[in-house]
Amino acid sequence: MTLALQNGIVMAFAVLYLPLIAEFDASRGEVASVQSAVLLLGGFGSPLIGWAFDRLGPRRLFQYGAVLTAAAFAVASRADSLPLLVLTYGVVGGLGLSTLGSQANLVVAALWFPAARGRAIAVADLGTGFGAFAFTLLGQALVVAVGWRATLLVWAALLLAIVVPLNAFQRLPPPAPARAGDARVPTGPTLAGALASAPFWWLAAMRFFGACAFPLMNTHMLAYAIGQGVAPATAAAALGAVSLVSLAGRLATGWLSDRLGRPQTLTLAYTSAALGIGALSLLALTGSSAWLVVYVALYGLAQGSSGIVASARAADAFAGASFGAIYGWLSLAIGPGEALGAWVGGRFFDAWGSYLPAFGFAVAALAAGLVSIWLVRPTEPRRLGST
Q1: Which fold has domain 2-170+189-378?
Q2: Does residue 87 contact residue 141 with C-beta atoms inside 8 Å?
Q3: At 182, is the pLDDT very low, low, confident or very high (cuts 50, 70, 90)?
């Protein structure tokens, strides 16, 4: 539920996007900077989140993050300028949302179920798809009925009413007991050892490139569809349907990653995403809304694949007492990629008057992410930095 609320709120920025452009009389690139700040803090805050996760545990981390985010949204609802909105919603709210996101939640799943990491992470990650679907539709209805300012207050109230009490029972599995005669208990790779290994950096590259592609599409798809003559309610429903389709895609990704392999599974997922982006481009070239349906099906199956595969592969390589910190530093690559992707979509539109160049950028980023995951060698991480 925590992950559903967090990702739902992040994804629902798409329904705030056009109202914010009208409110502040700003360009698309300028308004997209609000979402870029949220996504950038989600990445740059990752080492801090990893450190806090190892020391506070998930219960207090999630509860404190919900309170911080709710306070940021309450202040942002009164913002009278775009820079102030970037500071409150983007920076402070982005930092709070980062504590509730995939990084900490998927680490919990990976540590509880070491024998079936791909499937466990996929099941936990279902919340992101459900949340995006529900909050996109809810957000569209709220923006139309009460405006974007009141919508932020609704988000704040939900965080306080659901996340804080729900996580009172959150905990990690107890450490495995030492066996008689053991000289010392292995604790897994250290942070320093992980940072010195090539697999860590190839995984970081994979996360960066994937983060460039998916937020670009998620932030700008609704505005693009409306620009092609699709009704706003229909466009919002399509964006929500992507997340609904992703529920099946996430389960399939987790199952395949445990059986077929991590890079093989990501190849299938990213190929599906690229084909979906191509179908969406045909909406502009042909004017047929049938291509929007094709996009929802193909792109939706790949939504969430980056986090599932990367989390499972990182746990394969670096699980241990320092995994929270290691995964936090690995996730540092996500924020810059997401911020760049969200900004590129708006900037390319401002420069060319079309989203098609930005869609090409997204496909190229997916290709670079595939190259990176295939370069993560399965045996290399264990030789470095174990204690």
Answers
A1: Growth Hormone; Chain: A; (1.20.1250)
A2: no
A3: very low
